[in-house]
Amino acid sequence: MDRHLRADARRNRQALLEAAAKVFARDGAAASLAQIAREAGVGIGTLFRHFATREALIEATFRNELARICEAAPQLLTVQAPPEATAEWIEQFLEYMTTKHGMVDTLQAMMTTGSPLYNETLGRLTAAVRGLIDAGVATGDFRPDVDPADALALIGGVAYMAGEPEQRDQARRMISLLIQGLRAKPIG
Fold first, then answer.
1. Global pTM value
2. All domains of the chain, ordered by start, with CATH?
3. Least C-beta-crowded within 10 Å: which of 2, 9, 40, 107?
4. For 128-164, how does the pLDDT look when each residue is reduced to its tens digit (9 = 90+)?
């Protein structure tokens, strides 16, 4: 959809998505759409040309943030070894989970098990985790018997139990334990 827009319209749409992620995280799903438009540097009419409803904006914001977190996995692997890239990606995932808290009620209605949005989310996150694990297996850092769906469930558990910003120290300890469980051989 984005590629059919003029360059200025693409910039406006991206600015709206970035502003929406910040404002929804800060103010919740009932955040002012006018405030989102102001923070994006566009008028409210521009917001509604791109997103006809609040729900459409929330879903597009969620998809945009999902794409960002999933694209981070292979990028991290270009600059870090798989264990470090995986730990960093999990921390970024926790940030991602925190930013969507403001959209939770609306997302829950859209994300019923089996819905296209649920299936897309699960598929994209599993693929990101699979890429990290496969890279670790290829370097001999991770066990070859790890199921990416199991690893994603563990990561989800960390997000559920220690996903708030004030819990980052506990989250880092839990991430360290998770990485140790992925390792092909014990350290030390």
1. 0.83
2. 1-52 (1.10.10), 60-188 (1.10.357.10)
3. 2
4. 999 999 999 999 999 999 999 999 999 988 888 887 7
